[in-house]
């Protein structure tokens, strides 16, 4: 790891990972209040100083006014290995244990740290209409489509998936929500 001037690092224009305005503001705040985290998770660059891991952190560091940042050089990687790293660095392999988070962690801190959780006082409609980091191909159902939205509440993610599988319907999981194709089926 080394410390370099932020101006020497080039953002990766081909990085497919985005961050929405609200989450970006939280990331900037996080960097300002806990800059030590950058040393635990430095920006990863290739031989040409182009970001392979940490594109959004670099953008947030600039916004936070940092002049220098810690980096790790991923030297001697092939183009294919660099592309693979970019994707694998941004893939979330695990899922959250929501019951543990709800019972053992401070909800306000989780929200401040950027995790989408149910907030006390939130209405169900606010939760459903909020930006849950769903991908653009998620097809929200609204009045304009002539279709209706049906909401099921489950205690655990596994229960939701089990129910949907038992109904033999097509569904796609998108973080905290499921898009379900129920055309012509009854529940």
- Percentage beta strand: 5-15%
The CATH architecture of the largest domain is Alpha-Beta Complex
- CATH superfamily name of the largest domain? Conserved hypothetical protein from pyrococcus furiosus pfu- 392566-001, ParB domain
Radius of gyration over all CA atoms, rounded: 20 Å
Distance between the termini: 55 Å
Outline the low-pLDDT stretches. 131-139
Q: Which properties best describe this structure?
A:
6 strands, globular, 187 residues, alpha+beta, two-stranded antiparallel ribbon, single chain, 36% helix, 2 domains, four-stranded mixed sheet, Conserved hypothetical protein from pyrococcus furiosus pfu- 392566-001, ParB domain
Summarize the topology:
Elements: E1 2-5, H1 21-33, H2 37-40, E2 43-45, E3 51-53, H3 55-63, E4 68-73, H4 79-90, H5 98-104, H6 107-112, H7 124-129, H8 157-166, E5 170-174, E6 177-181
Parallel strand pairs: 2-4
Antiparallel strand pairs: 1-4, 2-3, 5-6
How would you describe this protein?
This protein has 8 helices and 6 strands, in the order E-H-H-E-E-H-E-H-H-H-H-H-E-E. The chain is α+β, with helices and mostly antiparallel strands and 187 residues long. It folds into 2 domains: 2-90, Conserved hypothetical protein from pyrococcus furiosus pfu- 392566-001, ParB domain, CATH 3.90.1530.10; 121-181, no CATH class. The strands form 2 sheets. It has a 4-stranded mixed sheet with strand order 1-4-2-3. The protein has a two-stranded antiparallel sheet with strand order 5-6. Strand 5 (170-174) and strand 6 (177-181) form a beta hairpin. Helix 1 packs across helix 3. The longest helix is centred in the N-terminal third of the chain and has 13 residues, at 21-33. The N and C termini lie far apart (55 Å). The model is unreliable at 131-139 (pLDDT under 50).
